[in-house]
Design a protein that fits this description.
heterodimer; A: 7-stranded mixed sheet; 4-stranded antiparallel sheet; 11 strands; globular; B: 112 residues; mainly beta
């Protein structure tokens, strides 16, 4: 079974520039998550999708971050404009997400390491 | 909201000894408790999880215990090996429509 795919793996940009990350979840997984992980910290959820609907985006800085999952499969996360403090690893994860109160395993992609100069 | 506290932040044990990492959670409605291992520069990987209808689960050298009354759960690693060195995260969730709440992580160091 193929895992969660992410690209690019590394990105270096200057502050105020824009950047986009792409994620392809495991086939058949309805739920997709974007996390931000700053060095030395645990993952912080930015946004959670179930199919193409947003379940939770309470921690997404909406003035600069946006995410979409238009067809309920792939997803993109965009930062515009980037700030120095956005330097982090951006992790995408997916789960079966059958809902109904059950919780299932989240599988993570390799992440995109963003450096903002 | 839900809060998960994890201790210790760093744990150093001799190879072959046991390691125990503890987490406490605040929301009594939480019913799913996974543990993730993250090696340096790699993605978090699930190593074991437990649901609120059981008190203990084992998988070879790894075990997790859950005390719902006290609202804490622990990861136990026996016969530690150098490849166990990593950062371990606990997490808690109320269900798939709710986010996982993560602990701050424990850096486990296995001394040869």
């Amino acid at each position: 079974e193929a895992g969660v795919a992410q690209s690019p793996r590394y990105k270096i940009i200057e502050k105020r520039q824009s950047v986009a990350f792409w994620c392809n979840p495991i086939s058949g997984h309805a739920t997709l998550y974007w996390y931000q992980q700053i060095l030395g910290q645990g993952p912080k959820l930015l946004i959670q999708f179930q199919n193409n609907g947003v379940v939770d985006d309470s921690q997404l800085p909406k003035d600069r971050f946006s995410a979409e999952r238009l067809k309920g499969v792939d997803s993109t996360l965009k930062i515009q404009p980037a700030k120095l403090e956005d330097s982090a690893v951006y992790l995408c994860a997916s789960s079966l997400g059958e809902g109904g109160g059950s919780t299932d395993t989240q599988y993570f992609g390799p992440g995109t390491r963003l450096t903002v100069l | 909201g839900e809060n998960v506290e994890q201790h210790p932040s760093t744990l150093s044990v001799q190879e072959g000894d046991s390691a125990v990492i503890k987490c406490t959670y605040s929301d009594s409605a939480s019913n799913y408790f996974p543990w993730y291992k993250q090696e340096l520069g790699k993605r978090p990987q699930l190593i074991i999880d437990i649901r609120s209808n059981v008190g203990e689960k084992k998988d070879q050298r790894i075990a997790v215990t859950l005390n719902k009354t006290a609202k804490h759960f622990s990861l136990h690693i026996t016969e530690t090996q150098p490849e166990d060195s990593a950062v371990y995260f606990c997490a808690a969730s109320k269900g798939s429509n709710y986010q996982l709440i993560w602990g701050a992580g424990t850096k486990l160091i296995i001394k040869p």
